[in-house]
Amino acid sequence: MTLKPQRHVLVVFPHPDDEAFSSAGVIRLYRNMGVPVTYACLTLGEMGRNLGNPPFATRESLPEIRRKELQEACKVMGIEDLRMMGFRDKTIEFEDDEKMVKLVQDLISELNPSLIITFLPNYSVHPDHEATGRAVVEAVRRMPKDERPTVYGVGFANNTIAEKGEPDVIIDITTVKEDKLKALLAHNSQTTWMVEENQKRIDEGQPMSDSWFHYEKFYTISFVD
Amino acid sequence: MRMKEVDVLELQKLIDSFANKDVYIHLETTNGSYATHYNEQFFNASAFIRNAKIRYEHGKVINDNPHRVGLKLENGWVYAQGITHYELDEQGRLLMAGLNHEGKLAIALEISETPFT
């Protein structure tokens, strides 16, 4: 499946690295096509658990580390418009729901994106992911039907395929897989353990790399009027 | 400075230095938000409080591994189990953490005379 041309792509995720895992390839491909990409990253992943043992960071120094990692990852993906929205990790679902919808509405009216990439509500595991996807879907749902951008949702809950079937958007990112790897590695505090985990999975015969570095998959979100 | 493994005598002195003062605490336990994703049988419970203002009359670190730290308040208690590392950071805040064998944070107890940002 080839990428559909876009006017502007808006990416909305809560944590630095969500974009790299799910969409770095697609983002890089769009940037290579000259499509502007804005990334609204809601938190700095302040509650990330990986501090190392022996530790490389503290609970209090982690946010600054992750801010720099996010900026570096954006460079690799070619994102020139990074918005760090200043929310706190693991608190998005407790924010005022209308405030979150308004935040997305404001981004949409400013940027007029033709595609938004976010998490797929009910199938995105982490409470921040769910709250982010919900806010995006609700903001777009409230738009006039003919003005709505396309919304791609990332779903990876264990029951996703059983309940939703295979994703309808499957993008071959093989040509930019090196860039995706670099984006993931830019999130060094988050991905060092992952490299080890991956080795374990390879040993168990279930490497993650295949799915991550060849295809990125999304569900086009449909709106019921 | 990096967090280092608990030295009971030194940590006890640091805990003492915040006693009988109004201090802000950060207390957090966590299994990670993906615990149930990886193991559906896992019952994921945790707690988080940041910038609660307390005053403790004394505090104690117990010499066990991992360590327990308890703070006795005028009308109550704060405690944390599983503390392995600590540092007094450049802002004079006492940061204690419990890091598991994979280097993932399981618990944090932090004490500061000024609010955490």
UniProtKB/TrEMBL annotation, chain A:
It holds the Pfam family PIG-L. InterPro entries: BshB2 (IPR023841), GlcNAc_PI_deacetylase-related (IPR003737), LmbE-like_dom_sf (IPR024078). It comes from the Bacteria. Gene3D superfamilies: LmbE-like (3.40.50.10320). GO terms for molecular function: hydrolase activity, acting on carbon-nitrogen (but not peptide) bonds, in linear amides. NCBIfam families: thiol_BshB2. This is Bacillithiol biosynthesis deacetylase BshB2. It comes from Ureibacillus thermosphaericus.
